[in-house]
UniProtKB/TrEMBL annotation, chain A:
<dbReference type="Pfam" id="PF09862">
    <property type="entry name" value="DUF2089"/>
</dbReference>
<feature type="domain" description="DUF2089">
    <location>
        <begin position="42"/>
        <end position="86"/>
    </location>
</feature>
<dbReference type="Pfam" id="PF22747">
    <property type="entry name" value="Zn_ribbon_DUF2089"/>
</dbReference>
<dbReference type="InterPro" id="IPR053957">
    <property type="entry name" value="DUF2089_Zn_ribbon"/>
</dbReference>
<protein>
    <submittedName>
        <fullName>DUF2089 domain-containing protein</fullName>
    </submittedName>
</protein>
<dbReference type="InterPro" id="IPR018658">
    <property type="entry name" value="DUF2089"/>
</dbReference>
<feature type="domain" description="DUF2089">
    <location>
        <begin position="9"/>
        <end position="37"/>
    </location>
</feature>
Automatic annotation (TrEMBL), chain B:
<feature type="transmembrane region" description="Helical">
    <location>
        <begin position="54"/>
        <end position="78"/>
    </location>
</feature>
<feature type="transmembrane region" description="Helical">
    <location>
        <begin position="172"/>
        <end position="192"/>
    </location>
</feature>
<feature type="transmembrane region" description="Helical">
    <location>
        <begin position="9"/>
        <end position="34"/>
    </location>
</feature>
<keyword id="KW-1133">Transmembrane helix</keyword>
<keyword id="KW-0812">Transmembrane</keyword>
<keyword id="KW-0472">Membrane</keyword>
<feature type="transmembrane region" description="Helical">
    <location>
        <begin position="99"/>
        <end position="119"/>
    </location>
</feature>
<feature type="transmembrane region" description="Helical">
    <location>
        <begin position="139"/>
        <end position="160"/>
    </location>
</feature>
<protein>
    <recommendedName>
        <fullName>Yip1 domain-containing protein</fullName>
    </recommendedName>
</protein>
């Protein structure tokens, strides 16, 4: 089963931070307070969109044909994503 | 399926929708020529006088070009996205497909007869007309049908503009209404002048 990385608090909806990291190999645990990178704070479908976009060499035309959507639909998705990323970076 | 009927532009835009849309516009004009149905503004269906085929085609092209041009200007002014001209003109051409079935309306004589009947009974204009109850029912059904097609056309034009210009929220609705009203007035005027020159 694929576990979904929680990015917001289920109780108050605030953004979550990383408190501990664990090494499976030597069982070392590092504790502290780390920010999640911007890309990890996106929804899984948005992360998949970015992966598809990179795999299409950044071509919206290729993306549109791969997703069976029109060019402006894909461009609007990208513009929405750019807006969201700018917003996340602004709040950092 | 319903999404494809109300918002086909989610899946199709650009050159593909332009080619399909222009084919539909020319087909609607040709059927309109035979059925004596014309479209004297972007959202109007009327029975037409005897005119050559190219009159119907040019009238439909005027409607499409006018709304597309105003929408393109609005998109340049208000959109934050890189808007492609081919998407605006292409999706607006395809948005006119509800007027393809509308072009068949004129094949029924009931509508013209009903119009003459209303003119005579309310304004005493023209000549007395005899009309049966069935003909009245057919005419009313056709009027309701054309009204529904016009609502469908407006919904399609709205969705075409929303996707090709990427404008959202109340800004989208306000800009769309303004562009629609301006285009109705201008196409009505242009088509009126165009018809006058042919008489």
């Amino acid at each position: 089963m694929d576990k979904k990385l929680p990015i917001s608090c289920p109780s108050c909806s605030a953004g979550l931070k990383v408190k501990s990291l664990y090494c499976e190999n030597c069982e070392t645990t590092i504790t502290g307070q780390f920010e999640l990178p911007v890309l990890l704070r996106l929804e899984p479908r948005e992360q998949n969109f970015i992966l598809d976009f990179i795999q299409c060499s950044g071509s919206l035309k290729l993306m549109a044909s791969k997703l069976n959507l029109s060019y402006p639909t894909v461009r609007n998705m990208l513009d929405d994503l750019i807006g969201k990323i700018k917003n996340l970076q602004h709040h950092d | 399926m319903i999404k494809k009927l109300i918002n086909p532009f989610y899946y199709i835009a650009g050159l593909k929708s332009l080619a399909l849309g222009l084919a539909i516009i020319i087909l609607s004009s040709t059927i309109g020529y035979f059925s004596h149905t014309h479209f004297p503004s972007i959202i109007s269906i009327k029975t037409s006088p005897d005119m050559p085929l190219w009159y119907f085609i040019i009238q439909n092209l005027i409607n499409w070009l006018t709304i597309s041009t105003f929408m393109y200007i609005a998109a340049i002014l208000f959109s934050k996205s890189k808007v492609r001209i081919i998407d605006i003109y292409g999706t607006q051409a395809l948005a006119r497909y509800p007027y393809f079935p509308a072009a068949f309306i004129g094949f029924s004589e009931a509508l013209e007869l009903f119009g003459k009947y209303i003119l005579w009974t309310t304004l005493k204009m023209g000549e007395p007309v005899e009309i049966s109850n069935i003909e009245i029912m057919v005419a009313v059904t056709l009027i309701v049908f054309s009204l529904l097609l016009t609502i469908w056309l407006i919904a399609l034009m709205f969705n075409a503009f929303k996707i090709s210009a990427n404008i959202k929220g109340s800004k989208l609705s306000i800009i769309f209404i303004i562009v629609l009203v301006i285009s109705v007035i201008i196409t009505e005027y242009l088509n009126y002048q165009f018809t006058l020159k042919l008489y």
